[in-house]
Amino acid sequence: MQCSLNDTALSSILPPVLIAEFILGTLGNGFALWIFCFHLRPWRSSTVLLFSLVVADCLLLVALPFRVSYYHNGFEWRFGNTFCTICHFLVASNRAGSVVFLIAIALDRYVRVLHPHHPLNFLSVSKAACGAAVLWLGTVSLSLFVTLNKTNSGYCGSFSHQSSRNYNVSPHRLGFLLGFYASFLVILFSTVCIVKHLRKRQIARHAEVKKAQSVMIAIVVLFAVCFLPSNITQLVIWFKARDAADAVRFCAEMQQLTVVYYVAVSLTYLNSALDPVVYYFSSSEFRRPFFSTSQSFLMGLRSGLCENEPPT
């Protein structure tokens, strides 16, 4: 039995949310790219990981306007099957890449704080770039597998909005869910270990140490806000589909849950707007040009407003 979803509510809710995320993500990551390319000299191994996260965000920003059109037109894709596959690949690459490189940044902080003399802390930029390339290879391979195994061609989304009582859990969906929860546990473990270590040594008030804690907390919050809601909702949908007995009640519940799921998925796109917070806390080289550029912009804005004021 198929339960059709009333697309009207989602078609009015999702486009404004995605447009806001696109604007914030474009401004934040455009500014971050400008700093990484023209102000961060020399790069360090940790800079390579941060730059990879910017690249992952840019993949999403390319696809996001087309997702807005898709939702605005009532889940009707008007750009052809090939471009649907490309957009689906970009979104999947962003999600997988964001998770992978946020974990890499968290583990980098973990090693730097708890094991300051570990060889990983002295990696050259070229070796860090090779490591990032390996991570990207795995990310792209996983995204291609997910994209090419998408069997429903009647829509252009990662989740069918016609929910069935015989809904089957595909291997790649299950693998992504398990990978997400394992990643979240790794980040929580790293954060707890860093905080406990710093408190034990009573150096948590040191400025650089506080920034290291801020990075970990920012990553945990980003994971919880952007990725946790959709993964929890996906699990609830699976369990409901397996245990459904009454068809009418099942369809009513699935309509509500699917709306919640799509709203939760829209939160995953928010990571492109929130990732610049991670850049800010992760790199003092990033903060310096951020402050100088912000001050120059505000001074220019203030002088422009003063010039436009009528004489008294």
Could you list some keywords that capture this structure?
single chain, about 300 residues, mainly alpha, Rhopdopsin 7-helix transmembrane proteins, 2 strands
In brief, what are we looking at here?
Helix content is 79%, strand content 2%. With 312 residues, the protein is an all-alpha fold.
> Would you tell me the overall average pLDDT?
81
What is the total domain count?
Answer: 1
Number of strands: 2
Spatial strand sequence of the major β-sheet = 1-2
- Which CATH class applies here? Mainly Alpha
Range of helix content: over 70%
Would you tell me the structural class of the helices and strands? mainly alpha
Termini separation: 74 Å
Major sheet summary line? 2 strands, antiparallel
CATH-wise, what's the superfamily? Rhodopsin 7-helix transmembrane proteins
Radius of gyration using CA atoms only: 22 Å
- Compressed to H and E, one letter per element, the order equals EHHHHEHHHHH
CATH architecture: Up-down Bundle
Strand residue percentage: under 5%
Regions with pLDDT < 50 over 5+ consecutive residues? none
The CATH topology turns out to be: Rhopdopsin 7-helix transmembrane proteins
**How many helical elements?**
9
Structural shape: globular
Describe the 3D structure.
- With 312 residues, this protein is mainly α.
- It has a single domain (2-161, 169-289), classed as Rhodopsin 7-helix transmembrane proteins (Rhopdopsin 7-helix transmembrane proteins).
- 79% of the residues lie in helices and 2% in strands.
- It has nine helices and two strands; from the N terminus they run βααααβααααα.
- It has helices at 7-38, 45-72, 81-114, 125-148, 171-201, 207-243, 247-268, 271-282, 284-308, and strands spanning 2-4, 162-164.
- A two-stranded antiparallel sheet has the order 1-2.
- α2 (45-72) packs antiparallel against α8 and α6 packs antiparallel against α7.
- The longest helix is centred in the last third of the chain and has 37 residues, at 207-243.
- The termini are far apart.
- The relative contact order is 0.15.
- It holds the Pfam family 7tm_1.
- Residues 28-279 form the G-protein coupled receptors family 1 profile domain.
- One of its GO terms (molecular function) is G protein-coupled receptor activity.
- Belongs to the G-protein coupled receptor 1 family.
- It comes from Neogobius melanostomus (round goby).
